[in-house]
Amino acid sequence: MKNRRNFLQQLGLLSAGVAFAPAILTSCDSSTQKNTEAGENAGGTATTTATTGTIKDIGLQLYTLRELLPHNIKDVVRKVAEAGYNDVETYGYSVKDGYWGLDPKQFKELLSANNIVSSSGHYDFAQFMTDGNPDIVKRYTEAGKTIGQTYITVPWLAEELRNSLDDYKHIAQRLNNAGQLCQEAGLKLAYHNHDFEFTPYGNTSGFEVLLQETDPALVNFEADLYWIVRAGHQPVDIFQKNQGRFVMWHVKDMDNNSPDLNTEIGAGSIDYQSIFDKAEVSGVDRIFVEQENFAANMDPFQSIKQSHSFVKDSLLA
């Protein structure tokens, strides 16, 4: 996890024209850290909320399989489908190398051949947060539209971008700008949290600033449930205060003995049933399983299959 943060910090210094390495780009880690409508109108304003009854597809954040993807993307996607998933969330898109060596059209064809969609993708926004140049966002929306994504998601922010409330206010304005660009392209913007956003500044936090100063018509949120719990908060409390804004979830469990490690969904310490029972309040319509580490004797594909089965049979039943 620590290594990934360092990679992201380094990559944030690169220009948008530089080809980023897909295997090390953005997803969901932190050192402290189908195209479907989410009951929203074309402008992105929430009009209704989803329930677990409307969540038919269980997605996988492909960062889970980052050690395997660069070696044989076709085999990995096939095995993801065999594990039961029919949606994937991408990370690490590169203008030069596309998605693990496939351009957006080729990647879309691979997904379709395995009856998989990609409704969201994580894209690096470090440069946009710094200079506001719209070109990089436009490149993301072009790629995302080609593979059929609904959400362009901001996955992580380097530490130097988020050291004060003023920094978060700046980030919020940039998110509004990016959200407008996504809306003009027929897509939606989302922001994915870690734990650092919950660092207190007096009686508020960076996360509160992001929620309060972003336009709900332009900026959605992807709740990483693990990181919310890790930060000492209850996801349901946050959903109730900000109803309808958390259109996507990352579902990953916390190891019972080592909270900094993940484990298979249902095998850890997070009470997911109580969270899924309040899905309607969240507004969620897409969920993505993610696991950032595996036990030494665990086959990653067996792991994701086990998590899929628990979500399907226990949480969405």
TrEMBL record:
The entry's keywords: Isomerase, Signal
Report whether Isomerase shows up as a keyword of the record. yes
Q: Give the matching Pfam families.
A: AP_endonuc_2
Residues covered by the Xylose isomerase-like TIM barrel domain: 77-312
Q: Where is the signal peptide, in residue numbers?
A: 1-21
This entry's Gene Ontology molecular function terms read: isomerase activity
Q: What is this protein called?
A: Sugar phosphate isomerase/epimerase family protein
